[in-house]
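Input (structure):
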């Protein structure tokens, strides 16, 4: 009876020990190891990226010179750059984010030098880029070993300073321009009584210098004399009746007309 109780207790202890060892074995990848220290947790944007410098302590010499890690980032706050109806200029606002999908960046950390010697500690730098889906805001960062998911150091919060794309939140009003009302009193076109009439423009006058004498009017009006003896003078026309051939033709015409009349009268008789 006593031996059976002892055996039962031993079996219970062995089962409990196996459960504890199994739990430790299964949960060991999630345990943290080493340290991951950022020199600065808040970084300004430069050329669309944020660069961080890190000091890493692996805890012991790794088996490989380059160990792959997963950088898991979850955005907690988005820096919204917007303008509303009450703003005179765009303003940056902190917009909390909830249930965001983790963003993963896989990077290798080198623990070996050029000669191939392994070291427990090393310095490392990495950058987060806008073209990889990151934006100005606040993130939580967890570094995990890719092979087993063990966390390097502890989770931390980082800030990516910068200006995101402008969001216009002003209300849109669809309204036309108001029509102008006609003036009650038309503008007066009467000239004031005291207004002086415009001075007439002075007419230009021909002025002759005093030292120049005007030419004689008679000499200026008289045409130049014509030389009658000059050859080719005159227009070359002839007056009617001066030509002898034209007079002879007229006499013959009268004679023929008279003979015609005389012959007709004789025929009637």
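Output (sequence):
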């Amino acid at each position: 009876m006593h031996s059976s109780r002892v055996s039962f207790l031993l079996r219970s202890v062995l089962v409990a020990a196996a459960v504890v060892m199994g739990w430790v074995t299964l949960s060991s990848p999630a345990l943290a190891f080493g340290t991951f220290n950022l020199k600065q947790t808040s970084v300004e944007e430069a050329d669309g990226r944020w660069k961080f410098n890190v000091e890493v302590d692996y805890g012991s010499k790794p088996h490989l010179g380059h160990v792959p890690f997963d950088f898991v980032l979850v955005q907690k706050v988005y820096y919204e750059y917007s303008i509303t109806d009450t703003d005179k200029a765009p303003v940056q606002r902190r917009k909390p984010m909830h249930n965001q999908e983790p963003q993963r960046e896989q990077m290798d950390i080198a623990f070996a030098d050029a000669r191939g010697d392994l070291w427990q500690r090393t310095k490392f730098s990495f950058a987060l880029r806008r073209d990889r889906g990151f934006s100005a805001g606040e993130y939580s960062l967890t570094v995990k070993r890719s092979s087993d998911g063990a966390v390097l150091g502890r989770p931390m919060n980082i800030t990516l300073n910068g200006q995101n794309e402008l969001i216009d939140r002003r209300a849109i009003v669809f309204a036309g321009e108001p029509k102008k009302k006609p003036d009650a009193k038309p503008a007066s076109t009467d000239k004031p009584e005291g207004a002086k009439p415009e001075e007439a423009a002075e007419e230009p006058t021909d002025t002759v210098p005093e030292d120049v004498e005007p030419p004689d009017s008679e000499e200026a009006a008289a045409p130049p004399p014509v030389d009658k003896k000059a050859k080719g003078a005159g227009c070359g026309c002839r007056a009617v009746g001066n030509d002898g051939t034209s007079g002879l033709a007229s006499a013959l015409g009268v004679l023929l007309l008279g003979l015609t009349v005389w012959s007709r009268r004789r025929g009637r008789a």
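Notes: Helices lie at 2-27, 217-221, 244-268. The longest strand covers residues 66-83.
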